[in-house]
Batch of 2 targets.
Target 1
Amino acid sequence: MNWLAAVSIASAAIAVSFGAIGPALGEGRAVAAAMDAIARQPESANVISRTLFVGLAMIETMAIYCLVIALLLLFANPLLK
Amino acid sequence: MKSPLTSVALFHLGPVPITEAVVATWAIMSVLVCGALLASRRRRLVPSSTQAAFELIVETVDSQIRDTMRAEPGPYRAFIGTLFAFIFVANWTTLIPGVEPPTAHLETDAALALLVFLAVIWFGIRAGGVGGYLASFAVPNAIMIPLNFIESVTRTFSLLVRLFGNVMSGVFVIGIVLSLAGLLVPIPLMALDLLTGAVQAYIFSVLAMVFIAGAVSEAKPTQDPSIERTKS
C-alpha cells in the first residue's frame, strides 16, 4: 500500500467523522425547536412534524454528501488507478 | 468488498447490458401498473374494501399536494403519486431477500431526478408559457439569472445524491454489520432502513412538489412573484 492509499483512507474517515458533527448539531437544534413548538401548539403538530421531516432530510443530506465523498475516495479514487 | 458505486450486468440484451437494478425497476413497474389496473377495474359508487383502500391512498396524495403546493391536485396527482409509489416500493424491496433496491444505484436516482427536472420545466411552461417560465429566472432581478440557473441544476443534483446516499448507505451498513457480526444482528438496522426508505420517498415527492410549485407560481403572469416566493 502506497502513501496515496493511506492518505485516501484517512481522509475518508476524517470526512465522515467531521462531516457528521455539523448535521448532528443542526438536527438536534431543529428537533428541539419542533418539540418546543408542538408543546406550545399541539393542534399544529401535523404541519410542524411534516416540515420537520423535510428539514431533517435536508440537514441529513450534508452528512450524506460527506459519506458519498468518503465512498468515492475509497472505491472510485481517480488517483489510485 | 463490492463497491456501491458500480453495478454489475446480469446479462446482455444484444449490445445493451442489463443490470440487476434494471430488472428490479421493471418488476416494480409491472407490479405497480398491474396493481393499479386491477384496483381501478370495477369501480362502484359504494366502494368495495379494495377500492376504499386505494381511494384512501389517492386522497392522502391529494391532501398532501393541496397542503404543500396550495393548488388543486388535478394536474400533479399522476406525476407526484407515481413518483412516491415507485420510490416507496423500490426502497422497501430490501425486504425481499437477495434483492437490492434499485434506488441504491446511481442510475435509477439520476433518472428520477432528471424526471423532476423536466417536470419543473414542463409545468412552468404550462403555467406561464415559454416567456413566462424564462422570465421566472429573473426573479427578483436580472442579477439573479446565473444563480437561478445554477440552483435549478444543483437542486436536481442534490435530489439525486440525497436519495442515492440514504438508500445506498442503508444497504451498505447492513452489509458491513452482517459481515462483522452475523445473522440476526442487522435486523434493527433493517427496520431503521424501512423507516428511512419511507421518509425518503415522502421527501423526494415533497421536494418535487415544492420545486414544481415554485416554478408554477413564478411563471404565472398575473401574480406578484415576491409574495409567492416566500413559501418555496
Target 2
Amino acid sequence: MISIKHLYKKFSKNSDDNFHAIQDININIDDGECVVLKGISGSGKSTLLSIIGAIMKPTSGAVEVKGENIVSFSDFHASEYRNKYLGFITQSFHLFDELSVEENISVPLIITKLSNKEMDNKIQHAMDIANISHKAKQKVKTLSGGEKQRCVIARALVNDPQILLCDEPTANLDYDNSIKFMEIICRLKKMNKTLIIATHDPLFDKLKCVDKILHIKEGSLE
Amino acid sequence: MPNSKYINFLFLLLITYRKKHIGIFIISVILIALLSSVLFISSAIRKDIYTTLEDQADFTLQRYKAGKVLNTPESWIDEFLQIDGVSKVTGRIYGMHFYEPSQTYFMIVGVDFFDNGVVKTLQTLLNKIDVEKFLSRDNMIIGSGVKKLFDDYQYKDNYNFRPPDRSIKKVYIYDILPKESNIVSSDMVIMDIDLAREILGVKEGYVTDIVLKVPNPKEREMVREKLTISHFDMRIIEKKDIEKYYKNLFNYKGGVFLILYTISLITFLLILYQRYSMISYIDSKEIAILRCVGWKINSVIWLKIIENFIVAFSAYLTGVIMAYIYVFVFDAPLLKDIFLGYDNLSQDVSFSQQIDPQTLAIVFIVFIIPFITAIIIPVWQKCITEPSEVMR
Amino acid sequence: MSDILLSPQVGINLFVESILFMLLFVTFFHAIVILKNYRHGVTTEYQYQLQNRSYLLITVISFALVVKILLLIFFTYTLDELSNIVPGAMCAAGVIKTNIYGNFVLILKLIIIMLIFLWLNLNKEDQLSKNHLFFKQKFYFFILIFVFIAIEFVLEILFFTNISTQSPVLCCSSIYKAAQNTTPMILHLSATQLITLFYLVYLMILTFCYLKKRVLLFISSLVYLYISYYAIVYFFGTYIYELPTHKCPFCMLQSDYHYIGYLIFGSLFIATYYALCSAVYNFSAKFDKTVFYYTVFVIVTSFHFISYILKNGVLL
C-alpha cells in the first residue's frame, strides 16, 4: 500500500523565484491497483512519480510504502527500495544504446548478490513477459521505438518489483505500439503489480484495467 | 561485489565510451613511458657501475699539491706495503689524450700485463688475450667509441700518438672492448704500462696514482688514518666515497629530472581534473539510469573510479612495456646521452636487461595514485546530480 | 640533508603524501561546512545537498586508506634504501632512530590506518541505519583523523629533512639492547616476566570477549598491543632470527625470514582492530573475530619459539 500524505515540493532557484510543483497532495493506492495520473505538461505528474520512486526528496510530507516513510531514507535504503520494489518506465527509454538488450536488462541485477545462473533466469523471464526475447543479443540502437519500450519494460520487471512507475510511456510510440503497451499493462495488473502511470494520452481513459484516474492541475489534485 | 557480470559491464562501458578516455590514455602512456625509461636507464647504469666498482681498489692515492693533482712517486708504494691490513699496492699509469681534429679525449690506461689479476679481468672482457703476442709490438685494446673515432679519421689498424717529447709513437690496434662494458670503457685505450708511460710523458720513478687493497672492512678506518699522517701532500679517495659520489650524482641527475617531470605531471593532473569535471550528457544519462534502477551513489562512484583506474592501469602497463622495449631492445637513443653525457665520445652503450620491482612500484605510485586523486572530486560531483533532472 | 631529499624514494613519498593531503584538506572543508549546517530531519534542498557531500567524504577516506597502506609499505622500503647512505644504519631500524621524529611518524602511520578502519565501520553502521543515525559523528571522527594526518605529514617532512648523512647511527643490536637481561619498557621486566604477562593478558582478553566486557576489553587490547611489541622484539624475534642479540622489528618483514613479520604484525593489527570495534561500538561487536585473530597472532608468534625448543631443547 502506498500512502501519500500532505506532499509538497517547491523548487527555488533563488529566494524570490519559487515554483510549487506539488501542493498538498494526498493519495492512497492499494496493492495491485492501476492508477493513472492525468494532467498537462508541468502539472507535477513526473515530480510526483520521482518522489514516489525516491529519486527526488519532497519539501515536506510523507510517502509511506509498506508502512515505511521512504522520504527520510538515506541513499543506501532509497536505492535498495528502488532496486527491490520499483520499476521505472519512461518516455525517453533511457537505455544504454551501445549495449545489447540482455546487457541493458541485467543492469539492475549486477549489484545484487545473485549467482550468474539466477540472474540469467530472471533476465529470460523478464524478456518473456515483455516479449523481447528474440532480440536479446541485438544492440539497443538498432531497435524500433516499440522494441525499445519493451526492453525498458523488461528491465523494469527483471527484479520482480511490486510497483511500476510509468512516466509518459506512450509519448514516443505510434498507435499500434501504444496498444501493445497497454496489453502488457493489463497483463501486469493481472500479476498483481501496483501500477502508477503518469500520462496525458487519452487512450488510457478507456483502458479496462485502470482502477482510478486522478487529475492533477498545477501541483494539486482536482 | 565484483561478479563476472559487473566486470563484463565495466569493460563494456569502457569499450563503448573509449573515445572519452583515449586522449588521457595517450598522454598517460607517454608520461609513464618517459618516467619508466629514465628509471630503467638509471638503474641499469647504476648496476653496471657498481659491478665495476666492486672490483675497484679500496683506496686510491694521488699526490696533491696546491690544489693540483701531480704524478705520485713510486717510492711511496713500498711505504704503504708496510701498513698492516694492506694486502696489495699497485702504481697505475693513465691519462687523457686530446685528439685535436675531433676535439675529443680518450683515456689511456696503462696495464701491467705481468700482474695476473689484471690479465684475468681483461680476459673476462676479451675472450682470450695472448700476452706474448700483445707485447711483441706496441699494441692497444680500444673501446668502441675510440674505434668509431679512428674509423671516422681513416685509422684502420694503427694510430700515431705524439708524446710530449715530440716523437711519434705508432701503436697497433689489437682488439676492441665488448659493447656490454661500454658504460665504463667506451673511450678507453688499454696498453702496456711502459708504453703508456712513454705516451703520457710520466717520468721514471713516478706513477699517476697508487691503489691499495684492504680486504678487511674493519681495518679500513685505521688504514685511512695511517695514510693521512704518512704524507701531507696526498689525496685519499676511498671506494665508498666513489660509491656515494655516483649515488649522489645519479640522485642529482635523477632529482633534476624528477623536478621537471613533477611539473609536467601536475599540469597533466590539472588537465585531468578539468577534463573529468566536464559533465557530458552521456555521463549524466548513464549515471541517472544506474541510480534509477537502484544503484547506490557509492556503487556508481566506485564504478567510475574503477573505470578510470583501468584506463590508468592499462596506460601504466603499456607505458612500462614501451619503455622496456625502448631501453633494453633499442638501447634508448637520445635519452641515454642525457644520462651519460655526450660531450666527449658518443656512448654506444648496451643496457643489461633487468627489471627492478621497486622501479615498477615507483612508477605505479607516482602516477596512478595522483591520477585517481585528481578524478575523485569530478567523479563525485557527477554522481550526486539528481537523476530526476536527466530523466525528464 | 640534500642527499636524502634527492633520493627518489623520499621525493616520491613526500610527493604522494602531499597530493593525498591536498585531497583530504578539500574534504576537510566540506566536513566543516556539513558540521556547521546539517540539521537532522530537516527536509530542505540544502540539507539533501549536504547529505550528498558526505559521499565525497566516504570515497576520499576509503581511497586514503588504500593509499596509506601502500605508502606505509613503501615508507618501510624507503627507509631500507636510505640505510645505504646513512652511516652506521644496517636496516630501516637504524634510519628510524636518526632523529626523534622517526618513531612518531611510524606510530602515527599505524594509528591513522587503524582509525580509518574504525571510521569505515562507523560509516557502514550509519548507512545501514535508516535515518543517518551517526551522520555528524562520522564527520567529527573524520576531523580527528585529519588532525592526525596533518601532524603525520609535518613530522614526516621534519623526519626526512633531519636525517643526517654525516653522523653515524646505532644499529639495532645497540638500539634494542637489553641491559642486564631486562627490557626497556615500563617496570623493566625480565624476559620471563614479559612472556608470562604476554600469555596472561591474552587469556584475559579471551575472558573479556566471552563475558562481553567492553571497557575491560578496550583497556586490555591497548595494553596487549604495548606488551606484544616488546615481546616480539625482545623475545620472539630472537627465535625467528635464531640469534639472541638480533632484536629488530624490521628484519622479519624481509624475504630472508619469509615475510613472517607481516603475518605477525598483521594479525596483531587486525585483532586489535576487532577488539576496539567490539569495545567502542555497541552495534558491531565482533568478539568471535577478536578471539580468532588474537589466537592466530599468539600461535604464529609462539611458533618459532616452541619449535626452537623442541628442536634444540634449550633456550637462546
